[in-house]
Design goal:
This protein is mostly helical. Helix content is 57%, strand content 0%. The protein has helices spanning 8-20, 36-47, 58-69, 76-91, 94-98. The radius of gyration is 13 Å and the shape is globular. The termini are far apart.
Length: 102
């Protein structure tokens, strides 16, 4: 069951994810050493405390994020899709917000 009443910190984390993934909410684009500061920012928001980079791997980020959002699914692809749907439901579709296609 998804979180119907996200905290302001969770909403802020979702906004960062939207910015960092260009509105696609594809968390796997945040992998690698070049993205560690971005993951650290997101994790710090989710946990409410400054998180060391060593604790900000992509798997740790996804696990914490999905737990706070209440994301479930039979496999990783289901969970990823459910997360995208959840984030768009909370923040709105970024293409609509930017006026894409007009």
């Amino acid at each position: 069951m998804t979180n119907k009443n996200p905290s302001t910190d969770l909403i802020a984390a979702l906004r960062l994810i939207c910015d960092y993934t260009r509105g696609y909410y594809y968390l796997w684009s945040l992998t690698g050493n070049g993205q560690v500061k971005r993951r650290q920012q997101i994790m710090s928001l989710l946990l409410g405390t400054k998180t060391p980079q060593a604790k900000c791997g992509i798997n740790a980020l996804i696990k914490e994020l999905y737990a706070q959002c209440g994301i479930t699914g039979r496999c990783g692809a289901d969970r990823d899709s459910n997360f995208c749907t959840y984030a768009r439901g909370v923040l709105g579709d970024p293409d609509i917000m930017r006026g894409a296609g007009q």
